[in-house]
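Lecture notes, unit on protein representations.

Consider one protein chain, 122 amino acids long.
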Amino acid sequence: MKTSTDQKRNGIQWTLWKQMDDLDFADDLALLSHTQQQMQEKTSIVADNSASLGLHINRGKSKVFKTNASSNTPITVEGDALEEVDSFTYLGSILDKQGGTDADVKTRIGKARAAFHQLKNI
């Protein structure tokens, strides 16, 4: 992944001096960019670098999640547009287009309630 993102500064501002380009966990990858153009460039570079290693991006599993975005131009991989979603779950946290946490909090409360109801008296 580093070879795909070290050529340009097109991530999101993380600290005063550092940018975050992606989130990696096991075989999951979340690319981060401020603009549609930067995201398309980054997606194309990752697809090209992956293909050179014999790996291919699964377009059926790949999703585009935009927050506070003005561009409606789709992100594509090898000419195919990726599906755009209104909410996205990453490592158990739910993100929505408005940047709010209401859906995440409600889901976590529901999971805690279900776990609590499964407890048995001793």
